Structure formats: C-alpha cells, structure tokens
Automatic annotation (TrEMBL):
GO terms for biological process: cobalamin biosynthetic process; negative regulation of glycolytic process; regulation of pentose-phosphate shunt. SMART domains: PGAM. It comes from the Bacteria. Pfam families: His_Phos_1. One of its GO terms (molecular function) is alpha-ribazole phosphatase activity. This is Alpha-ribazole phosphatase. Substrate binds at residues 7-14, 57. It comes from Clostridium acetireducens DSM 10703. InterPro entries: His_Pase_superF_clade-1, His_PPase_superfam, PG/BPGM_mutase_AS, Phosphoglycerate_Mutase, Ribazole_CobC. The lineage of its organism: Bacteria, Bacillati, Bacillota, Clostridia, Eubacteriales.
Length: 195
C-alpha cells in the first residue's frame, strides 16, 4: 500500500513562526503555490481514500489537490498537537510570558503538557491509533493531508516507535512523502520538497 503524506501549505502563522496547532489559520499566497506544485506532482495518482485533519488549512489544501471528488474523510486523530496557552506565541514570547511552563516543556517535551494543551505522548498516541487503522486497509493509494507534527510522529512510529526520531526529520509546508506498507513492514520511499 502506498501512503502519501502531504503537509498543508504555508499559513501566516507559519510565516510569523508562531506555535500553533489547534488555532485555525488559512493558507497564504505562498502556501497556495506550494500546494499547486504538490498537485502537479500527484496529478496522475488515483487515490482510493483521502484523509484530512479537521483544520481549515488542511481542508483548503485538500480542495486544491482534489478538485472533483470531495469525498474526504476528516479524522481528528491527525489534527496537529494542541499547544494550549502556547498557541499563537513565538519562541521568545513563550520564554517571556510563561517562563516556568516553558522551562518544564523544554526539559520534558514528551510528557509535559502546556496548560490547556496536550503532551507529546498523548498526541503521539492518537497519531499511532490512526496509522494503525491505516495498516488494516487493503488499498493501493491513500492520501493523508495533515500537519508537520503528525507527519514526523508517523515517521517515529514506522521507524520503530522511537519518539526521539520526531526531531530527526523535517516536514516543510507542501512536502509530499511516500511511505509504504508491504508484507507487514513500513518504510519511507521518498520525501519531495515543494519549493
């Protein structure tokens, strides 16, 4: 089975380099262009199923990629990590506004949950649940339109459930990755940058 992972296009929140997971943000002009390039790359693939997160940016990305068949499956398990009170803030703002919480998060990024947010361990658990449901499918081509944190968590899962691998991969806006599930094994086939 071929599973194509597509990160949504750039948003103004990406451009401003703020932390945002559950905040909704629209694609900007650059983001739209990134997804048009991804569409060209994916144009000859017939997708059996298309999964998207519940965010506006993922929906906008899906509407550019798939013009005719809008039969998307929205799955909250592939929403980006909820960063609670950290949402909409830059690295420097977090250090200044929430020094104690920022210190706790920096020292224990897996287990610590920002107030009103979720821990990485909890976030990873829902992404894992989703990708394990994909393993059970008997399809040829699946498209998953989601977020950078979700994609890096999928890599961590398929490469042996090593959560530290989260930081070992980039996932840029508009990137297309192909991962494959064959004979009970996962592997990364390729990663293509949109720019």
């Amino acid at each position: 089975m071929n599973i194509y992972l597509l990160r949504h296009g750039e948003t103004e929140s990406n451009n401003k380099k703020v932390y945002y997971g559950s905040l909704d943000s629209s694609l900007n002009e650059k983001g739209i262009e990134q997804i048009k390039k991804a569409k060209e790359y994916l144009k000859n693939i017939k997708f059996d199923k298309v999964y998207i997160s519940n965010s506006k940016r993922a929906k906008q990305t899906a509407n550019i990629i798939i013009e005719h068949n809008k039969d998307f499956i929205i799955d909250n398990n592939i929403n980006e990590m909820d960063l609670g009170i950290f949402e909409g803030k830059t690295y420097k703002e977090l250090e200044k506004l929430y020094p104690l919480e920022w210190k706790c998060w920096s020292e224990d990024w897996k287990e610590y949950a920002p107030p009103k947010g979720e821990s990485y361990v909890d976030f990873y658990a829902r992404v894992k649940k989703f990708i394990q449901s994909i393993e059970k499918l008997d399809l040829e081509n699946v498209l998953i339109i989601t977020h950078g944190g979700v994609i890096r968590s999928i890599y961590a899962y398929i490469l042996g459930e090593n959560l530290d691998l989260f930081w070992k991969f980039a996932s840029k806006n508009g990137d297309v990755s192909l991962i494959k599930y064959e004979y009970g094994n996962w592997f990364v086939d390729f990663i293509v940058h949109a720019e």
